Structures are given as C-alpha cells and as structure tokens.
Amino acid sequence: MSSARVVSIQVGRPRAVAHDGGTVTTAIWKDPVEGPVRLGRLGFAGDASADTVHHGGVDQAAYAYPIEHYAFWEPRLGARTKEPGLFGENLTIEGLLESDIRPDDVLRVGGATVRVTSPRSPCYKLGLRTGDPGIVGPFLASGRLGFYLAVVEEGEVTAGDPIAIVERAAHGLRFSDFIEAIFSPDASPALIERALAVPSLHPVRRDRLRARLEGRPSPG
What kind of architecture, by CATH, is found in domain 4-167? Predict the structure, then answer.
C-alpha cells in the first residue's frame, strides 16, 4: 500500500430531485468544501442525510470512496467521472483500497480518528446521481463499494491530509473479502464464516449470512 491521502471533502444537504414523474428527497449530491472541516461523531459539518433510517448515524458518520475507482467507471459514465463526489462520498481518497483494510481497522485521517465499519449498499439514488439508472447492479458486482466510517476521535480534516492505519483488526479479514461474503451469491461457506466472526457485523447482515450458510430463506 502506498501512502494514502484525502483528495477532496464533500458535504451536502437533502434536496428534492425529479424521479419517475415525481420528486424524491436525497442528500447524495455532495459539494466540495475547502479548508479544514470538522468531522464530528455524526459526520462532517454541513453534511446531512435525507433517509436517517438507512443512512447516517454513528456507524455511518462519513463515507469514503477511492479515486482509483473513478477510472474503472469512466467507460460507463464518461465525463461525469470528473465530478467530485460522484458516488455520494464525503471523502474521496487515494492510496487506500478495499483490499488494503479490514472491517474495524482504525485510521487516522488528518486530525480525526475513525473506524472502518460497513460497505456501501446502494439504492436507486446512486442512479439518479450518476445519471445511470442501471448502475446499481454493476456497482455491487464490481466490489468497488467504498466504506463507511465511525468517528473514534473528532477532529478537523483538510484535502491533502494523510491517512494512516493506526490499529489493525485482529480477525484479519480483508474488507474486499468482507464485501464478497455479504454481497456475492457465490461466496464460499468458509468466507461467510469468517465474515460472521467480525465483531461489528450488523445484526441484520449477521442474520442474513447465517440464513445463507444454513440454506434458509434470508430474513427481511
């Protein structure tokens, strides 16, 4: 892993967006901000979630997405990949991929300390933001989902700040494998078992993974 850094910071408030003959409210549009931005327990100053049932909260205080993935999406999304925060991320980062980290790793990001929590599970609003209604399935299949962060120590973050892994999770499961265990229909039982051993695995996902392992219908 090369040295990692913050490329840009984006925040946004809920807005009404045209969809399917009506409007929906979403905060997936994030605008770049300059200078130090306070990262608090519930997210960056100036940021908010429209759907607080499925987004936000202490375990999803901020969303990070590697800029390296933008090149992968360029053939599909074209010039839109030049837009900062295209995937609704608060932190566009460089040098830290899903294969470099583990769930529950602790990172130092500028003046804040954060813990890696869960992968992005996109809905149709990603299609609204990218202008590609069919992107949700390919996005999941790509494994290039980025990751949510919980804030361990609040602080200020600035574009260009370094990112360092300061504490490794003992379970040893790479985040990319964690994504495969959760989302891939072809995930092996052994990999699902390893994902179930991650202490912070969300109870809903834990129940669904156990159901898959036991050959039962997935709950929910």
Answer: Beta Barrel (2.40)
